User: Fold these one by one.
Assistant:
Number 1:
Amino acid sequence: SGYGMATLPTSRRDSAPLLLTIPHEKLRHHMVVPSDVEARFIRIEKEYAARARLATYGLRPRNRILLHGPPGCGKSLGAERLAWATGLTLQKVRFDTLLSSYFGETATNLKRIFDSAAEKPSALFLDECDTIARARGDRNDVGEVSRIVNMLLQLLEEFKGDGLVIAATNLDDTLDPALFRRFDEVLEIPKPGDAEIVRLLKLSFSALETEKDFPWSEAATELQGRSCSEIVNVCQNAAKRSVLASRQAVTWKDLEGAMAEQRRVS
């Protein structure tokens, strides 16, 4: 896959890496989001770039970011984009490995991860934070889970590293409200609206021609309520149909066929 595994830190039991390092050239950074969301991403990036100037006035950039929203709407993409724009190495924390390490070790491992992020600036990406919230319900050892949650809250509170901590979650109602307060920026990534859907379609079809009177707005109406990843998937299937049929351009029929197919699957 081309992703490098970080050597440090690992879970002691089975030495599974707790961090996955994604090299800069592998980072995806083209996002299609509403303009108000885009503006907030840009603000984070600008503050990070101006961190030295801000520090002379005793100010800190927003560097603890929580991304939330429905699955497939670009939370991981948002984390990759922030790492790309700031030039930081993206270190993805594997919560599944973290939680399956000896349960007593989880809090210690979490601390080791934050310590290494403070030493060497990176974009620390806590993906699927809801795993912890869910573990709260699944595990018998509730005391241990709240210890992990408290440890996470404390580490976020004390984080003074020169990098970013980015957390992503689908479920905001099960998350401890105390968690939200530990972030400088709580950013919702919504499902795409009509304007974003049209931009996604045009981006997805950019390698091909589209028929002259392609009904963009009708397509957007039809695709409403789907996530970015579902829309991109439909577009790729429509493009393949067009190529396999040796058509010069993607037609409405291609898109319609791909949409009908996805409906059958889901």
Note: The first strand starts at residue 4 and ends at 5.
Number 2:
Amino acid sequence: AWSQPLQVTAVFDDGRRVDARRRAVYEVGAPIATVTSDGVVTGEKAGETTILVRYLDQHTPVNLAWIPSRPNFTWRGPEPRN
């Protein structure tokens, strides 16, 4: 399982910055993850999803990807030519 907390900051016209994590609304694009009401994304498998974060009249998509750990992987790219 994996988890990732989101940071949601509202910036107002007067310059004030407010932590909006608990006031935002979250929508998950792919069923590989869930989001708690305080903005923590959790899932059970690798993959990609988009979380739509909405606060007041604004919305922002957040693209997330989890790649499984492959501790024995060795990169075998092309040989250098220069």
Note: The longest strand covers residues 47-55.
Number 3:
Amino acid sequence: MTVALLLLLVLYSCSLFVKRDELAPFDLKHTLPLRGILALLVILGHLDTVVSSQTKLLMPFHMATPAVAVFFFMSGYGLMLSYTKKGERYLNGFVTKSAIKLLIPLVITSCLYQFALYVKGDFDLNRMIEQYVDGSETALVHSWYVYALFLFYILYYLVFQFVKKGKCLCMFGLMTIYYMITRYCFDWDFFWWMTCMAFPMGLLYSQYEAKIKEYIKGRYWIAIPMLIGLLVVKFISGDYTLICAELPYIFLGPLVAVLMYKLPLPTESKILNFLGTLSFEIYLTHGAFEQLLKNAFASPYLYILVVVASTILTSWLLHNVYSKITSPLLAKVK
């Protein structure tokens, strides 16, 4: 997280010298390349935990958790943006559509991974159940994100369907309960709760984005002391703070959004857009290759190369397969 904050501080300092008449929108066109970068950071960050004893090559890219926080922020941001544009009709069939988009790819990919483990002789049903119970892992490596995101979507639906006033405040309350249960009641691993508050922050930010953009037009420098403050909090508190999730993760998404107003990513980049399109499948598959190929190569560099290449190729194949499965089902949901 420290590396991510320092990188943002450098980029913000550089952006102060950039003159733009209009701030760039934080829309799908401009965030698709960002999704590609975040997907790569997730892969490289997780790979660094495997090869760190052999090489420090990936140490500067150890930002998987901050990348997930930004993913959560953008998910909440997108939901609020869609709700603002479409109103109550956006909620029609929302849970069913979310289940189709998230759970069908998750289940199929999990089954493929467990089958691969069975072929290798590493399949262990009891171990899988134990990992689910203690929150250390799921049937598909690193796929906790999809389980958590689907739960957040359900909470979002319930709040926006039945709560009339203070929807975002209510979401923060429910997410705080989720945080308390997963961290203190279940004592699950940090990834279940560390970045969760970024999701309601995305909802809140989207709701007030117009006012935020108007405020920062002549005060773009204000993000600099905010970043310095978050770095101080990070250094003082160490791994965790006493509030729900770490404070830097809550504000990371908004800081990235504000940065991209002045330093938008190249929307014409075919590589980043390609990776952004595959970001969900990349997230699903990279952990499987990380584990399946863990002891297959003596060279950590060859291991990194093969895992990244296998992940991207498989993600492309699965993206096309899953779209053919889910698109007809989504078309039937009204």
Note: The CA atoms of residues 41 and 64 lie 6 Å apart.
